[in-house]
Q: What sequence folds into this?
């Protein structure tokens, strides 16, 4: 099975087609203004923190007591963000760390959201990981979503370029 990281979980919940293409090397997000903006927010916020590189995933930082922190450039919480943090909790737990919970930081609105880590969250993270692995292993490209959901997606030209 392929290693599943946080970006894979985010892409799965945004669009399975995006995950499938990403895993096959299609990476238009490198040309995306939205991605560059998010990276700038990450690079200039909480600058005293260091990423934790797990290989398949990169956690923004972990504080004492194994609290996972993730910074997002959006102004509103989303299920994608929570799922990504739950996945990081799962990955650390598999490495023998007793994780407490996660915190998502939204610096543009100066808010945080706590992500619980318990048996229910673990089961949800494991199920989401299985879904991602199922999408990645499909031989055919998943269908594209309705076009309005694709607004702002860096993969839009691939999916809708000839339409």
A:
């Amino acid at each position: 099975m392929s290693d599943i990281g946080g970006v894979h979980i985010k892409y799965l919940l945004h669009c399975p087609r995006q995950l499938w293409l990403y895993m096959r090397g299609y990476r238009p997000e490198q040309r995306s203004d939205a991605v560059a903006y998010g990276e700038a927010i990450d690079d200039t916020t909480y600058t005293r923190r260091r990423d934790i590189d797990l290989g398949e995933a990169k956690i923004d930082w972990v504080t004492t007591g194994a609290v996972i922190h993730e910074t997002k450039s959006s102004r509103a919480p989303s299920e994608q963000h929570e799922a990504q943090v739950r996945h990081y909790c799962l990955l650390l737990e598999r490495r023998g760390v007793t994780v407490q919970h996660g915190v998502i930081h939204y610096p543009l609105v100066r808010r945080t959201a706590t992500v619980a880590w318990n048996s229910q969250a673990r089961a949800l993270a494991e199920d989401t990981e299985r879904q991602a692995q199922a999408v990645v292993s499909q031989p055919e490209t998943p269908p594209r979503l309705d076009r309005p959901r694709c607004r702002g997606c860096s993969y839009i030209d691939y999916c809708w370029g000839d339409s």
Observations:
- The helical segments are 6-14, 16-23, 33-44, 79-94, 119-137, 156-160.
- The chain is about 40% helix and 15% strand.
- The first helix runs from residue 6 to 14.
